[in-house]
Amino acid sequence: MRVGGRDLRAVWWAEQGVGFVDQRRLPASLDFAVARDVEEVARAIEQMAVRGAPAIGVLAAYGLALAARRGVAPDRAAARLLATRPT
């Protein structure tokens, strides 16, 4: 989707971490956030800042990539992300 002449994605790889549209603010405003580590990714999922199975799946996958990039044990990162949603 294009908004204001630029591509808009729900989740993307950002220089500082993982960028995402904060869906809690929609439709009143279009706000963006960045998760810088796996814990911030997990909190974004738990707090429903990102909604919908595809977007949550992409955010979680990026969260695993962030964890690997920062040397976090993959089992620990995966366990934290799996614990975020009951579904």
Enumerate the spans where pLDDT stays under 50 for 5 or more consecutive residues: none
Strand content: 15-25%
SSE-based structural type:
alpha+beta
Q: Label the overall shape.
A: globular
Instruction: Say how many strands there are.
Output: 5
Return the average pLDDT rounded to an integer.
Answer: 91
> In percent, how helical is the residue content?
40-55%
Keywords, separated by commas or semicolons:
87 residues; alpha+beta; three-stranded antiparallel sheet; two-stranded antiparallel sheet; 3 helices; 5 strands
Account of the 3D structure:
With 87 residues, the protein is of the alpha+beta class. Helices cover 40% and strands 17% of the residues. It has three helices and five strands; from the N terminus they run βββββααα. It has helices at residues 38-46, 53-69, 74-82; strands spanning 2-3, 6-7, 11-13, 18-21, 32-35. The strands form two sheets. It has a three-stranded antiparallel β-sheet with strand order 3-4-5. A two-stranded antiparallel sheet has the order 1-2. β3 and β4 (18-21) form a beta hairpin. It is globular and about 40 Å long. 25% of the residues are buried.
Summarize the entry for a quick read.
40% of the residues lie in helices and 17% in strands. The radius of gyration is 13 Å and the shape is globular.
Could you give the topology of this structure?
Blueprint: E1 2-3, E2 6-7, E3 11-13, E4 18-21, E5 32-35, H1 38-46, H2 53-69, H3 74-82
Antiparallel strand pairs: 1-2, 3-4, 4-5
Helix pairs in contact: 1-2, 2-3
